[in-house]
Queue: 2 jobs
Job 1
Amino acid sequence: MSDDPLLRCSDVVVTFQQKQTRTTLTAVKSASLEVGRGQIVGLVGESGSGKSTLARAVVGLQRIDSGSIVFDGKPFAARRRRADRRGVQMVFQDPYGSLDPRMTISGTLTEMIRRHTALRGSAVDKRCHELMDMVRLPSSLLTSRPAGMSGGQRQRVAIARALSISPKLLVADEPVAALDVSVQAGIVNLLADLREEVGLSILFISHDLSIVRTLCDRVNVIYRGEIVEEQPCAELFAAPRDEYTKTLLAAIPRIGGPRAGR
Amino acid sequence: MTASETTLPVIPPSAEVDARGTGWAPGWMRRHNLQLWIGGSMLGLMVLAAVFAPILAQHSPTEPDAAHALLGPSGDHLFGTDNLGRDIFARVVYGARSDLTIAVVAVIAPFVIGLVFGIVSGYFGGWIDTIMMRLADIVTAFPFFILVIALVFVLGNGAWSIFVAITCVSWVAYARLVRGEAMVLRNKEFVAACEAGGISTSRILLRHFAPNVVTQAIVYAMSDIVMNVGVIVTLSYFGLGIVPPTPDWGSMMSDGQQFLAGGYYGLTLFPAAAVIWVSLALSFIGDGLAHALRIER
């Protein structure tokens, strides 16, 4: 049982019916990946490669056509129950769209806590303070609304919301892509720390290979809806096997690159 | 190389002013939300007049007094008297009671119906949206006034049928407005976060959608009250609205216009001014609210 990975996607297929052209678009075709307990697994690929769709399928926001998603030894049914939701939570790309502008931070966190735990009254407030500590935000922000908060702060709140119900797996869909480079490091370090502190497993989706390299244990490369390569992080960067991975790695700007000769 | 540098767009110094919007009000007015204050005071004055009508009016609004017909404005009759000798001031303030009450009450039902309709339609989309919007299309297919007049014709005169007729027709505007807002929200990631978090659909709609779409509906409601005042006054003008002798601005204008040629302007002028006063007040409030309720994303 404990040898099983926390998450195992097998041959997941997701298609969309195009209304206008009456054609079928296959966003994810036969993708398989695993996330082990306490691991941070990267999923990299270019725009439109199906990485976000696969992420949405893992958290249950996207129906899958075939294949299976097995979490913690049990396959997810087509319709998820509340207890299923508790195991996997997601952090989204756009920090400006992922918080309700009309709801205070404590409102956002409380909603989740009350839905999934037995905590009530002051215990909920205490939990909110804990969560703010966890994501390194001052508790004074609890009473404010997202307006006026920075992208980095918003993303930390989004992480706090995801962690509020102690999920085993966090799916982070490009969580730093919309942030300033100076803020990115803070979020990446936070995710790394959370793995140590609460034993969180993370499926980290990104197109930024340098971040994947610093954060992830294993990396999956997705191309046109298929996982083309899966390797431990160091090996993938040292010796990519797949042609696509090689071109992807070649696209990283290098020190000593073309500008160095000037 | 240098050519492309010199053609870089230069941000004009007035950009900051432009960013505040294209409304006609000057900056100082918007900073203190004077529109809301002016509109609120104007409407407040009218509402107070309506509430305290029995105290303010020295004469009965309905009792004819043939001996004092068609008098000009004086200390005793502030706005003069009409052809039956009734005090015009009394009729205007009592008219505010009937007209404003129906106008405001007739906004509540369409507001609620349209809000629910729009949120459900925008959130669920698909065939639910298609069916709901076809229903809205059917109502929109008829010209607004024609449909209201037809309904009042069927239902008969009186406040109640005006209320029903307006409700049947004007919910569509709210539904469309709210649906548009809801469709934008639908694609926001916080909605996906709620769904992934297992938050129930009813809670998503009530606690996340409703507060986010209600602002636009409230602002629209202000102009809708103006529209309702127009509808009531127009219907009454044509003899389809409030039943005489209950004072009402529309029937006052209708009754008074035959005396315009004789130089008795007061009969028409004062109720018309009241309509304009209320419309202006609500327009100011609408603009002011739009500004006050706007929230940064």
Job 2
Amino acid sequence: MRDTKVKRMKMKKARRKMNWGLTVLAIPGFAFLAAFYYVPLIGIVIPFKQVDYAKGIWGSDWVGFKNFEFLFKSQDAFRITRNTLCLNAMFITLTLVSAIFLAILMNELTRKKIKVYQTAMFIPYFVSWVVASYVVYAMLSPDMGVIPNLMESAGKDPINFYATPKVWPVILTIAYLWKNIGYMTLLFYATLISIDSSYLEAAAIDGANRRQQVFKIMIPYMMPTIVMMALLQIGKIFYSDFGMFYFLTRNSGALYSTTDVIDTYVYRALRVTGDIGISSAAALYQSIVGFILVLVSNLIVKKRNNDYAIF
Amino acid sequence: MVQKKGTKTISQIIINIIFIVIALCCVVPLFYILAASFTDEMSLAKEGYHLLPTKFSLEAFKYVFKNPAQILNAYVVTIVVTVGGTLLSLLCTSMLAYVMARKDYKFRNVLSFLVFFTLLFNGGMVASYIVNTQYYNLKDTIFAMILPYIIMPWHVFLMNGFFKDTPMALIEAAKIDGASEAYIFFKIVAPISKPAFATIGLFTAFTYWNDWWLSMLYINENKLTSLQYYLYRIMNNIEFLRSSMAAGVSVDLSQIPGETARMALCVVAVGPMLIVFPFFQKYFVKGITVGSVKG
Amino acid sequence: MRKKMRKGFAVTLAMVTLAGSLTGCGKSEEQKSQSTGDSSSGLEEVTLTWYIPGNGPQTDTAKVEDAIYEYLKDDLNVRIDFVECDWGSYDDKVQMAIASQEAFDLCYTAHWSNNFYNNVSKNAFLELNDLLDEYGKDLKELIPDEGWKAATVNGNIYAVPNMQIWAYQGAIGVENSVLEKYNFDLTQVKELKDMEPLFEQIKADNPDMYPIVNCGPAELLNNYQNTLGYEELAGSKIPGALEYGDDSMTVVNQFELPQVQEFFKMMYEWNQKGYFRSDSATVTDENMDIQIGKSVSKLTSTYKPGVETDTKAKTGKDFTFQQIGESHLSTSSITAALTAVSRTSKNPERAMMFLNKLNTDKELYNLVCFGIEGEHYTKDGNYAIPVENSAYNPNQDWVYGDQFNALYREGQGEDDWARTEEINNSAEPSLALGFSFDSTPVQTQLASVSAVVDEYYSSLATGMVNPDEVLPEFLEKLEQAGSKDLIAECQKQLDEWVKENK
């Protein structure tokens, strides 16, 4: 038994030798990864504890899945899950599609002009959500906002945006696009310009029109990047950018029907109950769903084209 | 099919118009904030937000810079954290990503998975806090604002994507010449991957620059307060500040800015980076061009 | 190449040392505190860490800490280490410290910030009964029984109440110039509705104005509940309330009370008429509109002598206040400011000795509140005048301890503390004073119910929606979320409490 095992290992080793030089290079980064991501993973037990500080977190009683109850028993469970999934799905597809589209358009322009556009489009990416919330408030504030003022001067009744839930999916999507489109476009553009121009020239000589060039050459070339971006974001589909949902909506209760997501819901639950078990339970639930989603999508991708898969 | 010149220029114009509109949409809203910060408080409350100050005033900035020593100190802390953090992070991230990208490395898949796993799973805020304060003793040290962000899984993946394109032939040739792996990475791979370093470096720098969370959790000393946290504090406590300022000093209270001061704080927080960014962008775009030539 | 590599290393090394030097300052202080010296009292020197909310670190905190040490050296031999947070992040910070079982000694707690009850139910605080008897005799005597009752949970005292205004007393404040202009007699106002004629006139003259503030801490219903005659037992805005004077001790859902439903209707009407901002629900700064002259009145739940000065300081406007309704003393009115000893404290005895001294020694208390005399403030009789741009001026005496020991601030009256105590003493204690609700058995329901409250309450309280349509929906959703269980649990605990305390 042992003999065959050793033999097999030896054979494996022969195929791929341990490369110490590379291992040394990976060590510092891996050490930080271990120290700041893997060590804190001990926290994964917190959701299963009834926290009692007299006993300490690790010594507290086990309570099984009791801390998860509030997430599923709540009448809002469906609503927050729907909001989280739908809004995120909308964000992901819209940003991907429009970023690819813009990147292809950008590729048509001269480098000089691109620089100006890129700078302008990139700026919102570096603005934090807190600052972005002020921007949105400046636009929408019923009293002083730009849009209500415009509506008023146009003779229409200005709406109080912060009390009108149905417009918020749109507002949030616009805000998300506003902040991320420059970054995503640049990412795809960077891939596009690395296409060997002789490919495109050859295609043009062969009589391929613009559309064919786009669909037969450019998009396939960008595919690995697209797949990676999509996979990474699908993994996060169950999370939402807390800053965005909390600050942009000014935590207005009247908007919850369309803007309340798992993260904001859990945050508020934590505020009243002060129980870290409950909030940790929600976080774990989000992680697991995200993890499964990614594993599945990665598997699908792997079946179709192994090169595109992340692992 | 040969395209006519005429249609080409028309399509160029249309594309340009599209980008001009998008670019304006991205930038114009920020100008409202800028204008508001230079507006008189009363005027803002009465007239609302406009692209140009309805009544020009520097009160908000005077108020924000009332304690210049503290702001200056906060700038120094943030700059040290940003520069130090970005350099260290770039070094560790790039090396890790490079190893992950090497197709001939034995543990490549394991490593990728380990990095990917952290993208989705984490022990939560409380566990991180316990580990950082009690095991690593990071509380009230500048490292608390640097070390947790040294490795960001997302950045590792981005860089990994860049390094995947490195031609294997180049590496093998160097190996035959007897170069060590470190030499190959630092002298051959890194120089041709400048765009990757520029891109990730920029993202890392902005992460450090914009972060107030770590300093809120771990820093209690004034000396180590970062810019963003300082601004966050004023922003949150503007009301409180107003009342504490009023105590003892006789000032016309209606002159103390509120909303405009918040806007001024936004400008102070974002401004410097936005001024620096276009210069950086120059190098950024150049780096990308280098990348395209390489491909 | 090797040379280059070494250079790289040198840079990294330099960076690390630079960072090290930056953190150095923190370290040296630590060492200082470790050098233990025995005092003449024979006690070994200890450092007490104290979490305090406020406006973040003061510039001269270290100096004040030194001064406190000098003052206490020969007696308690205690060094205080303030961890000064700002209100915005106090909850997060102190909760982290508690959750990670960091060793600290004292912290500010209340029913509304760093939630006292949650902390007690999770055993984060020490029981103080024995400590008080042994090391805090003066303190125990100083604070009236009502105070200790309010800080008692399940028979144990878990915190020291900070003496300040304890009574709930609603009062309406109106800007003097407006009262003069409209020749309005504020003393005739007996309830909020009586303000309507004035508001109507103001609104007719200035359609752009919003006569009253209804946002943030000045939200009307929240400040008016005492006047409407009930107190909340299960938590702020959480169903589970007791009406004052109800001998049967029946816990009710306050949103089902007729007077509350009436109030929602009035709010809806007022919103329609523009008596306050239509978007009040999303505005947090209560003073802004008064400061810029858009609003001219506000409601407070805790009237106290000197409230006019306070308002003037915050808004720059001169106000007159009229008390409406009766004053009451309830658990939550007292638990608005408490100091607790952490279970992780290594020196609980010394912490109690310090609290005892702080609350009984005026000089120590004023050192903590105002800083060093001559450097941070000057003394003028019983008044403390902060120097201009004082490097230590937390301006929140009530967070630290017995406010009645404090020097007066500019604008306060010579007998303000005496008058405040007078109000406390004359206020009617609630029948449930001393009862506190433990939400642990119904935590799931509490989380769901509070989510419903978050969604509906603000819209109703700021009249954004018509209560005739929305209130039934609100009540129904509350019930679905488990408000009945919550109220039943509250009733059960109250009954038990009555049995034990009567």
